[in-house]
């Protein structure tokens, strides 16, 4: 006999299956894998899968038990709502009470893709999925496999990033396995993701559309389609004052275990500061790490160095960021220094994640 308590205590077996994220034609084996993953979701189980942004941890969004399981697997506070992933625009009708004209316009411009919209929810969506809110976050991810999975899983997948709460989001199946092995039924391994930072979230319930989380789709891109767009002030500001409008953004997110400090300033001075600090930390018995672009990294000394790519390539920097933060944990680094970036365009998303990971610890040199 296995009571509820014992069931959660005994780890389940997590199977991993390979899948290509975006193939024009899926092999019959891939089809079979996606069907199997879909049945697991329809039966109330959990499957992690690659999206163009980060790996998601999917369950049936319309089944309150599945949402409870997602929170339990992630160790996530249940007031932090989940994004509902759909595969066809028409499917939105059942889960939202009203589709404003702005939603149609931005779906045409950015879906399938890294954009989530917040809309008033319909009765069909359990409050377990929306963390008690009367709004719902909806996204149509890019990639043929993920959309097939959504379809086979019943059309509505609640999927947060597939990390343990508070850890950097996974950008590879190995990172998912690190956090979720024994906690979920299946991992679909589609290799490294393309974007590496979570989707842009735009709230369409406000009078003026408002960005709650910056991502690959920038404010400028949204403004071209919607006209004026506001941005939640807490995106780059210190956490102290106002509460962020996306409940999840209030948590110390994306954080490595070591103490992370962002160092801003002219490269020579940044390198000099980092080298002074790592020498001092090292002498004090700390294990030091630096996360920086190729140009700066060559000038820095630390026990562990993680390269984000070239300074001019923001897309590469975003794609490598979470893996770099995770590597610092693997290497048991206790003091980490990271380069700071310009917070405009896609750089806003990079700086938003870095500032959160650093708990807003920034040194200007
Ligand atoms: O790129 C992504 O969006 C990834 C992939 C897997 O699709 N998903 C993701 O989910 O980042 P998650 O759960 O890690 O982040 C969802 C964010 C949280 O900050 C949450 O508070 C916010 O969306 N959110 C969800 N529903 C909301 C709502 N109704 N109102 C305001 N914020 C909401
Ligand atoms: Mg997340």
Structure description:
The chain has 365 residues and is of the alpha/beta class. It has 2 domains: 8-236, Alpha-Beta Complex (DHBP synthase); 259-364, Threonylcarbamoyl-AMP synthase, C-terminal domain (Rossmann fold, 3-Layer(aba) Sandwich). The protein contains 12 helices and 16 strands. It has helices spanning 4-9, 28-42, 64-74, 92-95, 101-110, 144-152, 173-180, 219-226, 267-283, 294-297, 314-330, 347-357, and strands spanning 15-18, 47-50, 55-60, 83-85, 115-120, 135-139, 157-158, 186-189, 200-203, 210-213, 230-231, 259-264, 288-292, 304-307, 335-339, 362-364. Strands 1-8-2-3-7-4-6-5-9-10-11 form an 11-stranded mixed sheet, with helices on both faces. α8 (219-226) links the parallel β10 (210-213) and β11 (230-231). The longest helix is centred in the C-terminal third of the chain and has 17 residues, at 267-283. The N and C termini lie far apart (62 Å). The model is unreliable at 1-7 (pLDDT under 50). Bound molecules: threonylcarbamoyladenylate and magnesium ion (MG). Threonylcarbamoyladenylate (TXA) binds next to β5, β6 and β10.
């Amino acid at each position: 006999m296995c009571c509820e308590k014992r069931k959660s205590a005994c780890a389940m077996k997590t199977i991993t299956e390979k899948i290509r994220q975006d193939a024009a034609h899926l092999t019959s084996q891939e089809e079979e894998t996606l069907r199997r993953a879909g049945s697991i979701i329809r039966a109330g189980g959990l499957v992690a899968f690659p999206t163009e942004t980060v790996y998601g941890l999917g369950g049936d969004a319309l089944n309150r038990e599945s949402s409870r399981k997602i929170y339990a697997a992630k160790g996530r506070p249940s007031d932090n709502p989940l994004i509902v992933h759909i595969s066809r625009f028409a499917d939105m009708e059942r889960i939202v009470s009203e589709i404003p004209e702005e939603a149609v316009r931005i779906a045409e411009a950015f879906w399938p893709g890294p954009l989530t919209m917040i809309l008033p929810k319909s009765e069909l969506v359990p409050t377990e999925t929306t963390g008690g809110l009367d709004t719902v976050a909806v996204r149509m991810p890019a990639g043929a496999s993920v959309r097939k999975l959504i379809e086979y899983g019943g059309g509505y997948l609640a999927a947060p990033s597939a990390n343990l709460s508070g850890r950097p989001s996974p950008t590879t199946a190995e990172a998912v396995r690190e956090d979720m092995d024994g906690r979920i039924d299946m991992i679909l391994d589609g290799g490294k993701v393309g974007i590496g930072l979570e989707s842009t979230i735009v709230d369409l319930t406000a009078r003026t559309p408002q960005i709650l989380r910056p991502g690959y789709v920038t404010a400028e891109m949204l403004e071209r389609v919607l006209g004026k767009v506001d941005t939640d002030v807490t995106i780059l500001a210190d956490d102290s004052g106002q509460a962020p409008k996306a409940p999840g953004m209030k948590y110390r997110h994306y954080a490595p275990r070591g103490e992370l400090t962002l160092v801003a300033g002219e490269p020579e001075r940044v390198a000099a500061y980092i080298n002074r600090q790592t020498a001092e930390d090292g002498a004090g018995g700390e294990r030091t790490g630096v996360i920086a672009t190729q140009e700066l990294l060559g000038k820095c000394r630390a026990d562990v160095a993680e390269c984000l790519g070239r300074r001019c390539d923001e897309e590469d920097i975003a794609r490598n960021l979470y893996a770099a933060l995770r590597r610092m944990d693997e290497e048991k680094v206790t003091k980490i220094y990271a380069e700071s970036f310009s917070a405009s365009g896609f750089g806003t998303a990079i700086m938003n994640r870095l500032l959160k990971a650093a708990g807003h610890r920034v040194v200007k040199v």
